[in-house]
């Protein structure tokens, strides 16, 4: 029997009490912690946070209105519209008023880290753009076992999150290493064998277009198997599926809006739609080398109106074009780094994904408690 099983058998063999989140969590409005200036600089020391996916928006030098948090006095920041949240154990300021800071009302009754893990088990997506904490989210009922049980569950789950954090930190370091070697390998200063040529010279370029509404599906089907791509990073670039292959050769797409300049190497047939610029290399360059060379370009879209690249703009950007043999050598080196940093079937991303799933499995298992029987049930037992 594990230590957790022993604690449950000793302290709550018949079940646990269920309470609303607002019974164990206090909230604070962020008004006095909102940053005045958004002129962020990495040389400053105070992070500006959002409870959304971005988390750290930048750093400020404002030395007033700082929310005091630490490893001994942590806080959960909660987005009042999306219900996303983060654990914070360092001083910070916030970007907007659409946030609440959550702390345990009594650490001897409800461990804040335990509540944090429990909130990850709440399967809720807001359907309207309204504030969620007071009216909805805080009223969700959660199991509240004895403190010793909470602490043991936290210990187990934190072991998983710490391992994931270590792997994520290693991935970040590997990505920086990759970028360093990529930039180094693509620097050909004074090399007479290397020509600097415009993308319009070495590629056929064209913009993605619309696709008929009756020729695609959001999900893959027997009929629709060819991926449709738009702008976006990773899986978010996949728009849906069709039965039309507009491009069937090795090519590179460049995001023209939003994630401007983000590139993807395509090895299978696909259909590009709006917000993408497609580059099909000519004989002087390989598609894989083009993919890496495009990454070192600093694309700049017009600041007036909606920032967007066009084919004529992209065509003017120049990349180094060494002999094909040298291109293949560079690609072989960078492919190894790229697989380690980006391959979802191997390397660090695959291991991180596996650890996240492992954490979710044990979190769901460990946080499933039966409620204490009601007084009526006790009387009839």
Written as H for each helix and E for each strand, in order along the chain, the element string is: HEEEEEEEEHEHEHEEEEEEEEHHEHHH
Q: How much strand content do the residues show?
A: 15-25%
| Number of H/I helices | 9
Strand order of the largest sheet: 2-8-5-6
Number of strands: 19
* Coarse morphology: elongated
Uncertain segments = none
Major sheet summary line:
4 strands, antiparallel
Mean pLDDT: 90
C-alpha end-to-end distance? 28 Å
What structural class results from the helix and strand content? alpha+beta
Helix coverage percent? 25-40%
Determine Rg (CA atoms, Å): 26 Å
What can you tell me about this protein's structure?
- The chain is α+β, with helices and mostly antiparallel strands and 381 residues long.
- Helices cover 31% and strands 21% of the residues.
- The protein has nine helices and 19 strands.
- It has helices at 3-11, 112-119, 147-185, 199-202, 287-295, 311-315, 324-342, 347-366, 375-380, and strands at residues 17-20, 25-28, 46-49, 56-60, 75-79, 85-88, 93-94, 99-104, 141-144, 195-198, 203-207, 216-217, 226-229, 238-242, 251-255, 263-266, 271-272, 276-281, 318-321.
- α3 (147-185) runs antiparallel to α8 (347-366).
- It starts with a helix and ends with a helix.
């Amino acid at each position: 029997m594990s230590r957790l099983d022993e604690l449950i058998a000793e302290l709550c063999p018949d079940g646990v009490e269920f309470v609303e989140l607002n019974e164990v969590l206090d909230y604070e409005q962020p008004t006095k912690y909102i940053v005045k200036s958004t002129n962020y600089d990495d040389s400053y020391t105070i992070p500006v946070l959002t409870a959304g996916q971005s988390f750290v928006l930048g750093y400020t030098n404002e030395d007033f209105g700082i929310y005091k948090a630490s490893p001994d006095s942590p806080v959960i920041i909660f987005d009042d519209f999306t219900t996303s949240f983060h654990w914070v154990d360092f001083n910070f300021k916030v970007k907007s008023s659409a946030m609440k800071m959550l702390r345990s009302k009594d650490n001897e009754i409800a461990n804040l880290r335990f509540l944090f893990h429990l909130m990850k088990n709440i399967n809720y997506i807001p359907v309207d753009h309204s504030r969620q904490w007071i009216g909805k989210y805080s009223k969700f009922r959660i199991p509240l076992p004895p403190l010793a049980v909470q602490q043991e569950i936290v210990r187990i789950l934190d072991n998983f999150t710490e391992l994931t954090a270590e792997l994520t930190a290693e991935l970040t370091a590997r990505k920086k290493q990759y970028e360093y070697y990529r930039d180094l390998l693509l620097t050909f200063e004074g090399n007479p064998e290397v020509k600097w040529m415009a993308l319009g010279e070495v590629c056929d370029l064209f913009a993605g277009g619309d696709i008929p509404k009756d020729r695609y599906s959001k999900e893959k089907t027997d009929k629709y198997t060819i991926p449709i791509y738009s702008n976006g990073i990773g899986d978010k670039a996949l728009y849906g599926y069709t039965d039309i292959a507009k491009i069937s050769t090795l090519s590179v797409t460049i995001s023209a809006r939003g994630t401007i300049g983000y590139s993807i190497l395509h090895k299978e047939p696909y259909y590009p739609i709006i917000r993408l610029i497609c580059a099909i290399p000519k004989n002087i360059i390989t598609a894989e080398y083009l993919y890496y060379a495009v990454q070192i370009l600093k694309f700049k879209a017009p600041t007036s109106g909606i920032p967007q690249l066009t084919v004529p703009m992209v065509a003017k950007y120049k990349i180094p074009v060494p002999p094909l043999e040298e291109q293949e050598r560079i690609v072989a080196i960078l492919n190894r780094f790229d697989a380690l940093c980006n391959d979802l079937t191997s390397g660090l991303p695959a291991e991180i994904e596996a650890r996240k799933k492992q954490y979710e499995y044990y979190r769901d298992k460990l946080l499933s408690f039966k409620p204490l029987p009601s007084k009526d049930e006790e009387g009839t037992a």
